[in-house]
Design a protein that fits this description.
This protein is an alpha/beta fold and about 280 residues long. It is built from 8 helices and 10 strands. The chain has helices at about 65-75, 115-125, 130-145, 160-175, 190-205, 220-225, 250-255, 255-275, and strands at about 25-35, 40-50, 55-60, 80-90, 90-95, 100-105, 180, 210-215, 225-230, 235-240.
Length: about 280
């Protein structure tokens, strides 16, 4: 059975994508308090881990354990009270926040007054890309997520699943080095969620960008990730490598004996973490 391992030394870098060959993410002794007039709440305690280039890392844990706080630190939206969060491309340390990091939320944030095409173009427009270039790139990613033919529709004319596809296309169109994702498929029905998981994974396996993916869903974490970080209350309890080969066909993997064993293993580790245990 899979063992708890320090997976931080393993790189999934591919020679086919040399541009992203040395990206790294580091949390070093990160602690954070949310301070109010009445008290201070410790939400992260001495959090230390690394994410190698092109690795898909999922962070799981109970509500309020600090998952999204950690993700927001990567995005540069929160600065840690103590410690260091660093994103690096080769020898270059990225100043956070940065356009090299893309963020996707559980609910789509499409602008209702823009068509789907113009929503996907938005980040490219902000960066000053020419109309022809951004139209071509947006069209490419809309086709990639299965929305070719819906370019002229407004968000209110689309199902929730289609809006999330549009949000994914917008995220990918800016071609960030890091994909930061906070439960992006959690609000979808089971069937649509399964389709979106496979579509996203297929795209990721082609492009291989570094992913930090927050989820409450252990099954989703095991299906998608190379590695799962299991959080206790504010601390990293277990760092688990997922052994399944790529490319993955999720409809086959999710019903395999090996996957059932991994899913149970993650569940047990989550229970351990919620009881204060750690590796």
């Amino acid at each position: 059975m899979t063992q708890v391992t320090d997976a931080t030394a393993r790189s999934t870098a591919s020679p086919q994508n040399a541009e992203h060959a040395h990206i790294g993410l580091t949390f070093e002794h990160v602690s954070h308090w949310f301070v109010s007039e009445k008290d201070a709440k410790l939400v992260l305690e001495d959090l230390t881990f690394q994410v190698p280039d092109q690795q898909f890392v999922a962070i799981v844990g109970g509500s309020g354990c600090g998952k999204t706080t950690a993700l927001n630190m990567v995005a540069g939206l929160i600065k840690p009270t103590e410690g260091r969060v660093e994103a690096r491309i080769g020898e270059e340390v990225i100043s956070l926040p940065s356009h090299r990091l893309g963020y996707m939320w559980a609910r789509d944030t499409l602008l209702p007054w823009r068509t789907l095409q113009r929503n996907v173009e938005f980040g490219l427009e902000v960066r000053g890309m020419s109309k022809a270039e951004r139209r071509a790139r947006a069209g490419h990613y809309l086709e990639m997520v299965g929305l070719a033919g819906s370019e002229r529709k407004f968000p209110q004319q689309l199902s929730h699943g289609m809006r999330q596809r549009g949000s994914l296309a917008r995220l990918l169109a800016t071609e960030p080095s890091f994909l930061l994702m906070d439960e992006p498929f959690s609000a979808l029905d089971a069937q649509t969620k399964g389709v979106m998981q496979q579509e996203f994974l297929t795209i990721w396996e082609e492009e291989r960008r570094t992913v930090v993916y927050v989820t409450h869903d252990l099954t989703e974490a095991a299906l998608l990730a190379d590695r799962v970080l299991v959080m206790g209350q504010g601390y990293l309890a277990f760092d688990i490598e997922i052994p399944f080969e790529r490319p993955r066909k999720l409809d086959e993997l999710r019903f395999s004996t090996e996957f059932a064993e991994m899913n149970r293993y993650l569940y047990d580790r989550l229970l351990d973490a919620q009881s204060g245990g750690r590796a």
